[in-house]
Amino acid sequence: MSDDHKPQPASASAGDGHDGAGGRFGEDTRVVHVGRDPFANHGIVNPPVHHASTVLFPTLEAMVAAAADPTRGVYYGRYGTPITHALEDAYASLAGGRRGVALASGKTALMAVLAAFTRAGDHVVLLDNVYEPTRALADQFLGRYGVDVTYADPMLGADIATLFRPNTRLLMLEAPGSLTFEVPDLPAMIAAARTAGVRTALDNSWATPLYLKPLAMGVDVVMEAGTKYLVGHSDAMLGVLSATDDAFPFIRKAASEIGAPPGPDDCYLALRGLRTLSVRMARHQETGLTLARHLAGHDMVSRVLHPALPDCPGHDAFLRDFKGASGLFAIELVRPDDRPVPRARIAAMVDDMVLFKMGFSWGGFESLVLPVDPRRARTATRSNWEDRGPLLRIHAGLEDPADLIADLDAGLARYAAAG
Questions:
Q1: Where is the region Disordered (predicted)?
Q2: Of the listed 98, 169, 194, 228, which one is catalytic?
Q3: I need a labelling partner for 304 at 20 to 30 A (CA). Which of 234, 250, 284, 388 fits?
Q4: Are 69 and 209 members of one domain?
């Protein structure tokens, strides 16, 4: 393995640069203050939005100076404007990294991670329950350029090391797993990767920096789909990343090469959403647990997959590593007989939901329900999901929990009657 791709001891620390809160306050205070400097902007509370492609320079010397690091000043619109840098600094401060990167979507952020640390002839390991677009990027984007991919059982723990090869460059983690919500033993996997000289990256979209600190656990890169809880209002596409000092240059270079910056208005919406992140996450957590516990006792529900409940795989790891839970989880419906449940029966439940609407993404103020099939996005653990009942992914929004329970109960009654 070449030295430039080997992980080095982590040296990231929060509170540097344009923190705003100085890194010395509690997290609820920090989400209000990071990434803004009112008295640098005439006392205006929120950073201004600049719409820009071309940036003018008064002298050749000024242009050459700006070109030395176009990602910190204002050099060209694709490298960001002050609102982009404010968001990047805010996310890095909360994530515990030295600097941040903002991109046009969560998938673009994932592409930057994969592109940063791999080249033709390399090998990567991904947990088998990563977000489906992560899998698509690994299989199609990396596969097209000669990078070999292995999928791992997310519950392997330290035994993940058995999958590493001399040319393994990256271990891609997600916690909890997409759709099925297993919680891997992150410290064991991170330690195994570091011992083997393998970079680690973790998709933290579910927990956000408030409930999980992957960089403090030793990962090289943390990313999330800011589209979801960070924005929080289902109205902007965004990806954000932060990294250790050692890993950041690779991420920054890959992001610049991809050339897919977020729009300034989306950055503004993300910063605005960030200010209420702690109160929204607390409500999502409370409502999600209320729904999960109610559904665990329903006779039409065979399993509830919520990391905070004891029956969820990896529950002990969740209690050890996470500070809280978001509002996203899944339920498995019962199969009244041993045959597959017809689509019409699932439709009887979901088509007439009043508050839970069907739609992709999550993290907004509205509740969502989505029928999913893990088998289409599993390799190492596909057999775990054979001969199971229908799986529904549920996002608990900010509505009254009693109203949400009534809507779910009515839907499950339709499901039962459709048989």
A1: 1-27
A2: 228
A3: 234
A4: yes
Active-site residue flag, 139: no
Which residue among 75, 79, 91, 131 is the active-site one? Answer: 131
How many domains, the chain? 2
pTM of the model: 0.91
Which of 19, 89, 153, 203 is catalytic? The answer is 203
Q: What is the pLDDT of residue 340?
A: 87
Q: Which of 6, 28, 69, 78 is catalytic?
A: 78
Taken in order 97, 111, 224, 136, the sign of the CA dihedral is negative
Q: What pLDDT digit, counting tens, does each position of 327-349 carry?
A: 999 999 999 887 889 999 999 99
Q: Which domain does 144 fall in, by range?
A: 11-274
Concerning whether 415 is annotated as a catalytic residue, the answer is: no
Q: Whole-angstrom Cα distance, residue 154 to residue 257? A: 31
Q: What is the mean pLDDT of the chain?
A: 93
Spatial distance between the Cα atoms of 322 and 358, rounded to a whole number of angstroms: 28
Assign residue 368 the CATH number of its domain.
3.90.1150.10
pLDDT reported for residue 170: 98
